[in-house]
């Protein structure tokens, strides 16, 4: 629900072209498609069609989750903005990409996917040999533990943390007021989750195992927003959690996602 | 001594999700009862199994897991060659697997939140002497109806949610659907023809019957 509200309320991003790696390609959408390459390219721009297209907006946490995975894997893609303010995500042609009317959707050749966490898993599997590893290599046991912590993010962390981000940040953008009682109640729940993370990260360098995986990556967008609010104290006051946040937000791929928001 | 142990309560939807999977796979297991009404799940030693204090927790040899949907996926992969196949027909086909993953995410993030609240309001609250909040029921039914409309369209194209075969995606829905069929919310399923057929198919499976006993 929170993602829907976020995506309904956000204005379409301004499109400013400053980098030589940004290309226009003609498109049936009213907005030009932006082609992003993960490395800045000194060669003259050429019109090519990336086989991967992401339909979404850089401010949406779910879209950011997918962009992070694409940058980690050094994959070329095209970001096709969706005009949320005009309700484009609730109409055709977007509904043919995601009948639930939520961003992002991803196309890779003739494969169409939605649900950000299914998309990132696909990227990690399909492009497992490219770029950074997003799943711990090895046996079933490690994969099983990764699934545990992927579910923890989706079922325990995100429902609470997203609502806090909504209260503290997104409501304000639209002239709605933060409900301090709601924030307090939600933070009371979040600290219990973060205490568990603190204990876990005392035994493991990252959540699922000793390497960075999707289980860590999935947290980045909402943590990014919360670290710009008073809620950051909850993360900073727990040493292992604090260290983990610093590590994952310092990743170069994440910096590129944050950079997209500024454009 | 079964090497597989489930620590949970046979009435909870999340425990049932795991038991269903074990039955589909014809796997032996031991169900270790966690007495929820005594708060056993919020204390040690259970917290060492799941620090979030929720059933079920799971053990297979020395592998310890929690989160029902992580457990079911582990079982489906580890015992892929046994019992019912719960993965797509070609489990190595990444695109097919991604389609199943979408369905699992939809169940977890779109279907279950509304469906679980409806089961809580109309069934489980009574166990605790609490009254159903009809406003919440109306609100959650409206949300569930929208999800089921998408399912109806999907099931017109495919026999099951992820394609032509029964997979984890369908299985994850079964426990809460079984509860909702005993409430007025049942109408949301019966008034959509393909959803109604799908519900009948998945709830009549022998494994689905076993978990009700």
TrEMBL record, chain A:
<dbReference type="InterPro" id="IPR040079">
    <property type="entry name" value="Glutathione_S-Trfase"/>
</dbReference>
<feature type="domain" description="GST C-terminal">
    <location>
        <begin position="139"/>
        <end position="263"/>
    </location>
</feature>
<dbReference type="InterPro" id="IPR034347">
    <property type="entry name" value="GST_Phi_C"/>
</dbReference>
<dbReference type="GO" id="GO:0005829">
    <property type="term" value="C:cytosol"/>
</dbReference>
<dbReference type="InterPro" id="IPR004045">
    <property type="entry name" value="Glutathione_S-Trfase_N"/>
</dbReference>
<keyword id="KW-0216">Detoxification</keyword>
<dbReference type="Pfam" id="PF00043">
    <property type="entry name" value="GST_C"/>
</dbReference>
<dbReference type="Pfam" id="PF02798">
    <property type="entry name" value="GST_N"/>
</dbReference>
<comment type="similarity">
    <text>Belongs to the GST superfamily. Phi family.</text>
</comment>
<dbReference type="InterPro" id="IPR010987">
    <property type="entry name" value="Glutathione-S-Trfase_C-like"/>
</dbReference>
<protein>
    <recommendedName>
        <fullName>glutathione transferase</fullName>
        <ecNumber>2.5.1.18</ecNumber>
    </recommendedName>
</protein>
<dbReference type="InterPro" id="IPR036249">
    <property type="entry name" value="Thioredoxin-like_sf"/>
</dbReference>
<dbReference type="InterPro" id="IPR004046">
    <property type="entry name" value="GST_C"/>
</dbReference>
<dbReference type="GO" id="GO:0009407">
    <property type="term" value="P:toxin catabolic process"/>
</dbReference>
<dbReference type="GO" id="GO:0004364">
    <property type="term" value="F:glutathione transferase activity"/>
</dbReference>
<dbReference type="InterPro" id="IPR036282">
    <property type="entry name" value="Glutathione-S-Trfase_C_sf"/>
</dbReference>
<keyword id="KW-0808">Transferase</keyword>
<keyword id="KW-0963">Cytoplasm</keyword>
<feature type="domain" description="GST N-terminal">
    <location>
        <begin position="50"/>
        <end position="131"/>
    </location>
</feature>
Automatic annotation (TrEMBL), chain B:
<dbReference type="InterPro" id="IPR034347">
    <property type="entry name" value="GST_Phi_C"/>
</dbReference>
<keyword id="KW-0808">Transferase</keyword>
<keyword id="KW-0216">Detoxification</keyword>
<dbReference type="GO" id="GO:0004364">
    <property type="term" value="F:glutathione transferase activity"/>
</dbReference>
<dbReference type="InterPro" id="IPR040079">
    <property type="entry name" value="Glutathione_S-Trfase"/>
</dbReference>
<comment type="similarity">
    <text>Belongs to the GST superfamily. Phi family.</text>
</comment>
<dbReference type="InterPro" id="IPR010987">
    <property type="entry name" value="Glutathione-S-Trfase_C-like"/>
</dbReference>
<keyword id="KW-0963">Cytoplasm</keyword>
<dbReference type="InterPro" id="IPR036249">
    <property type="entry name" value="Thioredoxin-like_sf"/>
</dbReference>
<dbReference type="InterPro" id="IPR036282">
    <property type="entry name" value="Glutathione-S-Trfase_C_sf"/>
</dbReference>
<dbReference type="Pfam" id="PF00043">
    <property type="entry name" value="GST_C"/>
</dbReference>
<dbReference type="GO" id="GO:0005737">
    <property type="term" value="C:cytoplasm"/>
</dbReference>
<dbReference type="GO" id="GO:0043295">
    <property type="term" value="F:glutathione binding"/>
</dbReference>
<dbReference type="GO" id="GO:0006749">
    <property type="term" value="P:glutathione metabolic process"/>
</dbReference>
<dbReference type="GO" id="GO:0005829">
    <property type="term" value="C:cytosol"/>
</dbReference>
<feature type="domain" description="GST N-terminal">
    <location>
        <begin position="2"/>
        <end position="83"/>
    </location>
</feature>
<dbReference type="GO" id="GO:0009407">
    <property type="term" value="P:toxin catabolic process"/>
</dbReference>
<dbReference type="InterPro" id="IPR004046">
    <property type="entry name" value="GST_C"/>
</dbReference>
<dbReference type="InterPro" id="IPR004045">
    <property type="entry name" value="Glutathione_S-Trfase_N"/>
</dbReference>
<feature type="domain" description="GST C-terminal">
    <location>
        <begin position="93"/>
        <end position="213"/>
    </location>
</feature>
<protein>
    <recommendedName>
        <fullName>glutathione transferase</fullName>
        <ecNumber>2.5.1.18</ecNumber>
    </recommendedName>
</protein>
<dbReference type="Pfam" id="PF02798">
    <property type="entry name" value="GST_N"/>
</dbReference>
